[in-house]
Amino acid sequence: MRTGxxxxxxxxxxxxxxxxxxxxxGATSRAELTTALGLNRSTIGALTADLASAGLxxxxxxxxxxxxxxxxxxxxxxxxxxxxxxxxxxxxxxLQAARIGLGGVxxxxxxxxxxxxxxxxxxxxxxxxxxxxxxxxxxxxTIGVGAGIAVCGMVRREDGLVRLSPHAGWxxxxxxxxxxxxxxxxxxxxxxNVADVCAFAEHARGAAAGCDNVIYLYGDVGVGAGIxxxxxxxTGHGGYGGEVGHMVxxxxxxxxxxxxxxCWETEIGEYALLKAADRPEAFGREAVxxxxxxxxxxxxxxxxxxxxxxxxxxxxxxxxVNLFNPEMVIFGGTMRDLYLAAAxxxxxxxxxxxxxxxxxxxxxxxxxxxxxxxLIGAAELAFERLLADPLDAS
Length: 394
Ligand SMILES: [Zn+2]
Description:
Belongs to the ROK (NagC/XylR) family. This protein is α/β, with parallel strands linked by helices.
């Protein structure tokens, strides 16, 4: 017969809950923790002492003393400078590496341009070089909890293998395993799709904090979605769910790099916008932004392109709203700029496609974490192990 959890299991769960609270919310008084976690004061005191002796949190008397009588409640804060995760993001035009402290603090970061089509064998040494540089600046006595990698591609959940990154030509690339050899065998590495990672970050500590049904639409050349349904990340059986860029929306549309035709990303991705704006030779984020800028300055061709592509954006989002009934849709990558430039078209098409019941509470948003979402989210993946069992993982 299965009995309830043991005292030790409960203690470990509570340690994780307390650490997660200060990791996500920042410095919190013992009194607030008592209320937030539903535990009594002596339990909070004992848990905090355990986490402090492991070097994960610190306690201090608050600087601003209240006017009321009585002792002030000690404030518990994450040891952001001491406990860190490594975070990497591999996006179509750039590579980023960062050291991120507990609490989501960016302690150090490096950004590198990425030529289109850079193969995995050339990508890993660039990130490893950035890692080496950052390692030199790490003070002694710090605790590294692992590494997270966000990749624009389809990632197998069980082992982080990048199955396909069509715009870079990657097929079955073990980028996580390659970087793990640089990080050291004892460093756990988690790899995930960049849209999933951004959704995770915005849900944990960004625009979607407190929302349980969220779609984060990430786009550049390709388009993907990180989907959170009922508070949980929806990744599908193998980890490949959310490939919304390959929803076929136009059977007479253009060929897609996935081998199909008329996929959504062939109507809203970078190439679609540049082609519609009569700039077929251009590519890259700067070229995309130049179209929005031209439209803003009254260039008729650019305005038509933005309206046309914005209409397709609303068309697809309307279908996603019908499928998932989200309370929030976040537009990231160049989808952010497209949404801002064509908000009226997006809204108008969305309203005509989506069922009114599915649509009634949808909020359309841009990312609160901006360009940091992929790195913050990659670090969050690495912190998960620590938050699940703080004393075991540290
Ligand atoms: Zn496709």
